[in-house]
Every structure is written in C-alpha cells, then in structure tokens.
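Project outcomes to date are best conveyed with an example. Our students and postdoctoral researchers have been running inverse folding experiments weekly, and each run begins with a structure described purely in tokens. The record below, which covers 122 residues, was selected by the lab manager from last quarter's runs and is presented without edits.
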C-alpha cells in the first residue's frame, strides 16, 4: 500500500522560500511518476510540478522559474523547492503518485495522494 506524507509547509512572507517534502513508501518515488498539486479555498486543484514518464519535469506557468521539483530515490522522498513566493501561492499542497492517463502530468489523475501541507504567504 502506497503512503505519502507531506511536510514543510508553513507561513512565510512574500519573497521568501520553503521546501516541501513528501515521504513515500519504499520504492514509490523510483517506481511511479510523481507530482505536486495545490488547492486554494474556493479554487480547483491545479498541477504545480511533475515528473514526466521520460524523467523530464513540467511546471505550471505560474511557478516556472520559481519552483523546482526533485526527488531522492534512496530516501523515498519527493521535494518541492519554492522560491520568490507570492501571496497567490498560498494553498494546501499535495503530492501524488502513480499517474493515470497519457496526457500532461499536470492534468492527469493519480492513484495515490498525501494528506496535504498548508502554505500561507503574506
């Protein structure tokens, strides 16, 4: 059974940085396509950053150049480094694993989700 546990959220001033972590069950990070999503109150969930099946990365236009997705297979951990944070980045951030579908990694559905970690930028 795949388990995903996010951490690293918090409150930060605009312009600041945070690094989110997603601790995954053994082999999850190396076996599955993984991604970060976020959802703000009253808004739809949106894909933020993802690993494509060929190992390349994809980013939402709103975070390009500011966010970086990375992973450590040995630690079974997915990361999202967020720099130059803006107020509009405030949301609950979720990591996801095991992508379904053949479209964009930022749009497809995923089989496994974490519980989320809150990011507040003021």
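After processing, the design step wrote out the following sequence:
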């Amino acid at each position: 059974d795949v388990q995903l546990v996010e951490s690293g959220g918090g409150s930060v001033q605009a312009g600041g940085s945070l690094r989110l972590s997603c601790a995954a069950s053994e082999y999850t990070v190396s076996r599955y396509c993984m991604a970060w999503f976020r959802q703000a109150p009253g808004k739809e969930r949106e894909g933020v950053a993802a690993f494509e099946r060929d190992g390349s990365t994809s980013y939402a236009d709103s975070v390009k150049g500011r966010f970086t997705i990375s992973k450590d297979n040995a630690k079974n951990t997915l990361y999202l480094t967020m720099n130059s944070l803006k107020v509009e980045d405030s949301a609950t951030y979720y990591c996801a694993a095991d992508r379904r579908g053949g479209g964009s990694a930022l749009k497809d559905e995923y089989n496994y989700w974490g519980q989320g970690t809150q990011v507040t930028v003021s």
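The first strand starts at residue 4 and ends at 7. Residues 28-31 form the longest helix (4 residues). The training component of this project remains on track.
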